[in-house]
Each structure stands twice: as structure tokens, then as C-alpha cells.
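User: Predict the full complex structure for these chains.
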Amino acid sequence: MRRDVFQAIADPTRRAIILLLAVGAMTPNALAEHFNSSRQAVSKHLRILTECEILKQEQQGREIHYHLNADKMKDIEKWLEQFKQLFAKRFDQLDTVLEQLKSKNK
Amino acid sequence: MRRDVFQAIADPTRRAIILLLAVGAMTPNALAEHFNSSRQAVSKHLRILTECEILKQEQQGREIHYHLNADKMKDIEKWLEQFKQLFAKRFDQLDTVLEQLKSKNK
DNA sequence: TATATTTGCAATCAATTGGTTTCGTAATTA
DNA sequence: TAATTACGAAACCAATTGATTGCAAATATA
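Assistant: Here is the predicted structure of the four-chain assembly.
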């Protein structure tokens, strides 16, 4: 079973959960009210997000408060950064080619 | 069939394809050489990425060069930015609360 | 103590996914 | 023209996904 941040944010409901919890911790019931999905469906998403270590549980009596581990989100940022650098480098190479063409025409 | 950038980057092979194409355009066969998967499997990923408009095809004789539409990647960045702002705002609110507590104790 | 509330967990199901194999077609090359 | 190459598309399959239903455990309330 693959369980990484990218698979976690692939689902729109899970992305919404992340945004909601970015504002503040919430219980499953409170979260479920924001969606059309059932409480169990939301709970399943919470389980997946917890397994990815994007969420942490905090038991308070019979309630469980889910809150964000914002650090995990950096994995996405890291990959994006890697992509951006590779893409930028491509232009560098293009620049080199253009420079070479330029000096050839001289 | 859901077809968005988030679902596209959920698969590790597709993420690798994106990174490879960030450096420069490639044909399906050239791409497939970088993976253990078959040419057809890679081709299927290419179709998905093209349907998401992350990739564009450019026919050259019997070869098809796939290259990146880097703009689409901004969708991920936008969502990340939205998340970061919500998360930052949370700290702002916390700051406000702390400020209020501070003035109460005066 | 009896009842209600909050929650996780297992079983089940239809839909989707990622992969393979096979086929057809268009562009090269011999 | 015949063989080869590069590719997409369709059919198929096992594994995974997202959702539902039913249940049990723990805590709170009457």
C-alpha cells in the first residue's frame, strides 16, 4: 500500500480536509459536517492522512482532535522545487546554445 | 474520470516522467528506457498527463515528442500557497490570543 | 446504572488504476 | 514494394480506492 503525501493530496476531499485543518484542529464529526460524505468516509480519509503522517491525533476525552503536521507538506514543496530547478536549467542550456550561435555569426 | 494535476502527480512514474521532460522533450521510447515498465505502460501515463494538459505532443515524422506545459504545474503551487497562507493565518490568530492574554495580565 | 454520543474498525461493493498483450496504422528504410 | 520502426488504441486482468453498513469500545450524561 503506497502511502505518501502525493497520493494523499490526490483526493479532493482530502485536500479540503487539509485546508480546514490548516486553520485549526477539528474532530471527525466537526469535519464531516463540511462535506456531503458520511462520517465514516471522512474518518477513512483521516486514517489515510494520519498514516501519511500529515495529521496527528490528540485524544481529549471521547473526542479526537486532528491537527496538521505542516512539516510533511514540505515534501511536495521539495519536489516542486526540484522540478523548477530542472526546468530553469533547461533555459540555461538554451541560453548557452543561443550564445554559441551568436558568437558563430560574428 | 477525474483528471487533474494532483491525480497526475500521485503516481511516482508520472512524477519521474515530469522531471525527465522538465530537462527536455522526449519520445515515448526514449522515456520508456528510463523505466522498468513497458513502452505501453509509459504511453498510458503519457496519455493521462496529456489529458491533464501537463504534456503537449509534437509530431515529427513518425516520432512524437512530448514536452512539458510548465504552466499547469502552477496549479499545485497555487494550492500549496493557499495552504501556507491559511496555516500562517492560524499563527496570526494565535498571536492575537497571546496578545490578549498578555494585556489581561497587566 | 442505563442511555446516548463519539469514534475506530472490519466486511463488503462498485469503480478506478496500473499494467500486459495484441492489434492497427503511419512513417521510414532496405 | 516489403520489412521495420514508432506509436496509439482496445481488450483484458489483478490490485487498489472510496464509499457504505454494521458493530464494538470508550466516554459522557441522565
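Chain B has a mean pLDDT of 91.
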